[in-house]
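Please go through the protein record below and explain what the tokens say about the fold. Record follows.
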Amino acid sequence: MNPEVKKKWVEALKSGKYKQGQRALHLKTSDGSFFCCLGVLCDLYIKNVRTDVKWESEEHSEKQRVFGEVVYLPKEVKEWADLHYMNPVVHEWDLANITMVQTQVLSASLLLK
């Protein structure tokens, strides 16, 4: 994983600015916005690289999409972060130094280097 991106990601996860979500990269509900940890990575990409891109509402759903993706990491974000999979698993032990709140994570196969 790109070390600079990893540093920003860890900082964002620790910041408390993102409410924990699951089953989607980003959810907007009447209770607020929620992000899985991969959604946080997508949001960082939007804010730091592609400021012209916005999260879009998925029709008849609280789920938000970016680059056409709702659950999986978009190719653009995967390449920016130098990850190998679009649906990586971030193991709890990988995030032990972040916060327990962020260990809800998605499934597949990323080991943070």
Strands lie at 19-20, 26-29, 32-35, 56-57, 63-65. The chain has one domain: 3-104.
